[in-house]
Amino acid sequence: MEAQCEQEVRGFHAFLRDWLAGAVPRKPETFARFSGAMDAGVEVIGPRGTVTARDALVDEFEGLHGQLAADADAFEIWIENFRCRWAEGDHAVVTYEEWHRRQGATSARLSSALFRRAEAAPSGVAWMHVHETWLPGLAPDGGERFPESS
Predict the structure, then answer these.
(1) How far apart are CA 3 and CA 138, in angstroms?
(2) What are the mean pLDDT values of the chain's consecutive 10-residue runs (150 residues total)?
(3) Which site from 10, 13, 27, 102 is most exposed, i.e. has the minimal number of CB atoms within 10 Å?
(4) Main-chain dihedrals φ then ψ at residue 112, nearest 5 degrees
């Protein structure tokens, strides 16, 4: 379970980077990498405290395809310090740092996520709950809109 969760966290964010940069086609079967990983009841608490449910999350991110295409060469997302905090049966809780670099500015958030085993999901696990907070001194300047809920 731990390996599946780590694979999902890393693979999901790599897909997100490619989706935002427009490096993958805007097709339902491509976006299924995102939507197929989300549990029906998932909620994401973004680093500014906003709560986004699955349907709004999927709609928002589907619409962000290619939003950062102009920055594609200078835009990065990567994961550091992945750690499985608890796993039992078909569920696990993990933490990780999500780092962004865009136009020379770096931001980072600490995320906690609850997963459940889901055979049909891309990595065999589905996101059930995510809670993010900015790491001290690493919130983006200027109230950056993209992407609070990723």
Answers:
(1) 28
(2) 97 97 97 98 97 98 94 88 98 98 93 98 98 96 51
(3) 27
(4) -115, 135
